[in-house]
Task: structure prediction
Amino acid sequence: MEAPGSTTQAPAGRSAILSGPERVPAAGAQTMPTQKHDRRPEGKTRVAVIGAGYIADYHLTCVGGIEECEIVALVDTDRARAESLARRFGVECVRTSIEDLATLQVDVAHLLTPPDTHVALVGKLLDMGISVFAEKPLALSAADARALDARARARGLVVGVNHNNVHHPAFTRLLERVAAGEIGRVEHVQVTLSVPLAQLDAGDFAHWMFREPRNIVFEAAVHPLGQVHALIGAPRHVETTLISRRELHPGQVFVDRWSASGTGERGSMQIYCAFGQGFTRNTLQVLGTDGSLEADLFHNTLSGERKTGWLDFWNSYLASARRGAEMRRDARATAARWFQTTLGVAPRLDAFFVGMRESIERFHAAYRAGIEPPTDAARASEVLAWCDALASAAPAAPPPPPEPPAAGPARAGEVVVLGATGFIGTRTVAKLLEAGSPVTVVARRAHSLPPIVAEGVKSGRIRFVRGRLEDQASLAQAFAGADAVISLATGNGDTWEAVERSMVKGSVGAAEAALAAGLRRFVYVSSIASLYTGPDATGNEVRDSTATDPLSAERSLYSRGKIAAEVALLELHRAKGLPLVIARPGVVMGAGTPMQHSGLGIWNRDNHCVGWGHGQNPLPIVWVDDVADGLAKMARYKGTDVDGQALNLCARAPLTAAEIVTELRVATGRDLHFHPRGLELSQTLEIGKWVVKKAGRRAGVEFPSWRDLKARALGVVFACDLAREKLGWKPVEDREGLLDRCVRVYRQKS
Result:
C-alpha cells in the first residue's frame, strides 16, 4: 500500500473504441442555425440561478449584463449564503429548493451544483418546463447526456452547457485562423495541461474531484477535451496511460498524471494532463498540412508558423521572427487590457471572464432566437465521449464507506471536536484518543474522512454526528452529556457580512449550545492574528491573555473576525459563565498544509515569497502536533484557573522567514526564493495599487491598512507561560527538530 501523498509509477493503460455521432461541424466552420424550440419568451428571459458557490458570481455578473434577461431567483440549500449573494446582486427572491421555481414562471435555470447532481436536477427542471444552462460537465457519461438531450427535445426545451474554454479568447482566435485555411487541413492536436490544485496541497480530499479516480477527468480534463472536440470532432479510438498516482487516504487513489492519444473524426490527438503541479502550463498546438498554430491559454497568446517561398535559412528566420512578433503583440494587448480594466476605462477583459461571458451570452442569444446554442446537450455528449475514453483507464473506485452508526449517548469525559477533519483537527482527535478521551466528531460529510476519524468511527471510539456550525439541532445532539468542546470550525469570506456570519455568529451559536448543554469547558481556537504584533507593539512582547487589537477596523477580514469572535465569547464568559478558554496558535506548520505558508510572506508565485519585512526576526512557528497536544490538554484540564484566559501556543523558534524558505529550497530541490522587502516599500506599493483601482472606480476598494501590514511582520516576542505552567505543554523548540517536522516533510512533494 502506498503511503498517503506518495507518487508511484502506474503504467496502466486502456484502449477505447467509440462509435461517432451523427453530426459534427468542421473545425471553425459556421453551421447554419436550426430551429431548436418554440418557447421563445415574449418579454425578457426570466432566469433562475441554482447554486450560490464561487462560480455563481460569474453567472450573476454575466447574466446581469444581458439586457434581454432578468434574474428572478437564486436557489441554494444554504439560505444564508444565498441571501448574502442575492443582496450583492440585487436578486429579490431566494429559495432553498428548485421545486419552489414552479410558481415563478422561470424560462431558463443556470445549474451550478456539483457534477454528480446534474442529471437528476436537469431532469426535474425539464419536467417543470424550464430550459437549462448547466456548468460543465453536463453528466458523468455520454449516455446520460444523450438521454437528457432526447428528454429536452421531446419537451421542446433547451439544454446548454457552459464549455467556457471553447470561448477562451486565444482559442477563438485559433479557430478563426483554422477556419480561414491558414494552416491547411487540421491533422493533429496536441494538448498540455499542467496545473496546481489548491485542494490537493491543502489536503482537502473531501472535494468531489477526489471521490473517485475518474472524477478529475470530468472536473478538469473536460476543458481541453472540449477544445479537442471543436477541432477534430468526436472520438473514434483512444488509448490512455496512467503515468502516476497518489494515495490520499488509505484506499482513496488520485491519478495525478494522465496521457492519452487517439483519433477523432477529422484528425488525431495527444493530451498530457498533470494535476497538483508546481509549474503551470496550458497549451494547445494544432498541426495542419501547411502550418501550425499554438495557443498558450494561461498567458492568452497565439502564434503560428506557415511555409514561405524563401530558402530554408530565411524561412527559418521568418518563422521565428513572426512568432516572436505575434507573442509580443499579444503580450502588449494583455497588459493594455489589464491597465484599461483596472483604470475603469474598459470592461473586465481577462481571459477567464471573457470565456464565461461569451459562453453565457451566446447561449442566451441562441435561446431567444430559437436555435441551437453553441454547446447543446448533443455536442456536450460528444465531449463526454472523450472524457469516457480517458476515464475508462482509471482504477476502480473503492466501495463507498458504510454510513456511520447513529450517535449514541455521550460517554464519560466526551470531548466534542468541531472542525475535526481539518489540518489541526485531525491531530487534535489523535491526541485526545491517545490520552484516552472519548471523542465526538461533528462534520458535514461522512465520506473522505481522514483515516484517524474514519477508523475511530468504524471501531466505535468516535461518535459521528452529521452537522455543521450553523445547525443548532446537530450541535445540541453532539453536546448533550459531553464534557468539553474544542471549536476549530471557522469560516471566511470576501465581505465582512460573510465573515461575521460564519466566523463570529457561528462560534457564538456553538458557545450558546455548549452553555445550554452544561459543558464543563469550551475551547475556542483563535489565532495570534487577533493581536497587534507589529514591530512597534507596546513592550515588544505579547503575553497570554493580552487584549485583542483594539483597532480591529484597520485589520484584515480574517483578523477582524477572530477579534470579534474572541470579544463576543469573552462577553458570554462574563455575562453567563461560559467556561471559556481561548487558544492562540502561532505560525502552524507541518505535513498536511501547503508549504507556501502566509506567515512567511506573500507568495506572488508558488516559488517566490515576498517577506513581511526583511524576514530576519525569529517567527513564532509551532509544529501542528504540538498545537493539537495543547488543545487536547486544555479540554481535559480539570482546573478552573484557566477559564476566561487566552493561551498562546508558540514555540521559542530560532528560525526566520528567510531561513525557512532557504531550508525549503534545500529540502525540496525546488527553485524557491525569498525576497526581503521593507514594510514602508510594501505599503507604498499597496497604496499605488489602491490609487490605480480608485482611478478605475473599482467598487469596494479600501485604503491599504498600514497597521495590518505591520502586524503581519510578527515583530514581537510571544510568551506562552500559561500553557507550560498549567498544562505541562512542551513543544518542540530545537532548530533541527522543528526543521524535521515543519520543513523537511515537504521532500516528498518536490
Summary: The radius of gyration is 28 Å. Residues 117 and 139 are 8 Å apart (CA to CA).
